[in-house]
Specification:
Elements lengths: L4 H18 L3 H4 L18 H15 L9
């Protein structure tokens, strides 16, 4: 059975979320988010790097060991 466009889109989004939120693989996640990404939140500046930085900071604040940026 062929995948529908909806199923392929869902799979793509799940891969993107897994890559960024769970694996925290920012280099690979760049494939899924445009450099011009717009996060419609008053607390996050526009752009992919600002969005990624939000998760980098959040991860570091929750980490039980030092973050790579702080070593």
């Amino acid at each position: 059975m062929k995948d529908t466009l909806q199923e392929r889109n869902k799979s793509l989004v799940l891969k993107a979320f897994e890559t960024l939120f769970n694996q925290r693989d920012y280099e690979t996640a760049e494939r899924y988010w445009s450099p011009q990404y717009i996060q419609h939140s008053a607390h996050i500046e526009p752009g992919r790097e600002e969005f990624f930085n939000l998760f980098r900071r959040r991860h570091c604040s929750l980490a039980r060991s030092p973050c790579p940026e702080s070593r």
